[in-house]
Design brief:
The structure is a single chain. The protein is an alpha/beta fold and 249 residues long. The protein has one domain (5-244): 3-Layer(aba) Sandwich (Rossmann fold), CATH 3.40.50.300. Helix content is 35%, strand content 27%. The strands form 2 sheets. The protein has a 6-stranded mixed sheet, with helices on both faces. A 4-stranded antiparallel sheet has the order 2-1-4-5, with helices on one face. Strand 4 (62-70) and strand 5 (73-74) form a beta hairpin. The protein starts with a strand and ends in a 5-residue tail after the last helix. It binds adenosine-5'-diphosphate and magnesium ion. Residues 16, 21, 39, 41-47, 59 line the site of adenosine-5'-diphosphate (ADP).
Length: 249
């Protein structure tokens, strides 16, 4: 493992009302790589991912112990709005705002008082999200007129418009058809040139296709972390092998 570490956790434990969801996890996320978090349902993937930009802060009864660092600084010592600008998130179900395509993208930059040319922000963000060609003639249509796959790319464009450093994706293709899934996977491959990506997926083939590093979780523990190729071809732990060969999960 080499390269710059963008996000790291050090022996982190997380609880929901005293029930442990993440156990003693130490992991590094490296710059301009795709890190996949895999494991059976309920193993803590979303909990860990959401902690990277403090999305669990407002969940009642949630607590986290141990350090989570973004670019070497404890995330709790950072302004949460600023942190979420740097560490953006794309969710499982496409969740555009009930506004036009154009407004979905400009909303964030506007409320943050950015002075850049909004037309340029829209074009640039949609191009980066591989959606421009499909929507350039109808930027003022309602976002919900798009297909599910297009809506998810719009959500990626909306995240990109904030000029993030890291993009967190929580099962971004689980609500999409195979064709849209392929488009998003191709897009992830492009985006990693400029961003650091962490993707939660329950689809092992997807993890194998898109990621450089894979972390396998089971019941809140990180069982194994490594280069994706070696996790899938030569896992060191029996539990990892059982999972990737489909014996459970
Ligand atoms: N908001 C919540 N309140 C209480 N328990 C939760 C909450 N979210 C998740 N959990 C519990 O934490 C554990 C990990 O959940 P989660 O991170 O969503 O797993 P995954 O994303 O791997 O399916 C599960 O036991 C789940 O029931
Ligand atoms: Mg989840």
């Amino acid at each position: 493992m080499s390269g710059n570490v963008v996000i790291s956790t050090k022996q982190v434990n997380m609880f929901y009302s005293g029930k442990q969801a993440i156990k003693d996890v130490t992991v590094n996320v490296y710059e301009n790589l795709v890190t996949a978090i895999i494991g059976p349902s309920g193993c803590g993937k979303s909990t860990l991912l959401r902690s990277f930009n403090r999305m669990n802060d407002f969940v009642e009864g949630f607590s986290v112990h141990g350090d989570i660092l973004y670019r070497g600084q404890n995330i709790n010592a950072q302004d949460v709005t600023e942190l979420r600008k740097r560490v953006g998130m794309v969710f499982q179900r496409p969740n555009p705002f009930p506004k036009t395509i154009y407004e979905n993208i400009t909303w964030g930059p506007k409320i943050h008082g950015r002075k850049d040319n909004l037309d340029e922000v829209v074009e640039d963000s949609l191009k980066r999200a591989a959606l421009w060609d499909e929507v350039k003639d109808r930027l003022h249509s309602f976002a919900f007129s798009l297909s599910g796959g297009q809506q998810q790319r719009l959500c990626i464009a909306r995240t990109v418009a904030m000029k993030p450093d890291v993009i967190l994706m929580d099962e971004p293709c689980s609500a999409l058809d195979p064709k849209s899934t392929t488009r998003i996977e191709d897009l992830i491959n492009d985006l990693k040139k400029e961003y650091t990506i962490v993707i939660v997926t329950h689809n092992m083939q997807q993890a194998a296709r898109v990621s450089d590093h894979t972390a396998f979780f089971y019941e809140g523990e990180m069982v194994e972390f490594g280069e994706t190729d070696s996790i899938f071809t030569n896992p060191k732990k029996k539990q990892t092998e059982d999972y990737i060969t489909g014996r459970f999960g």
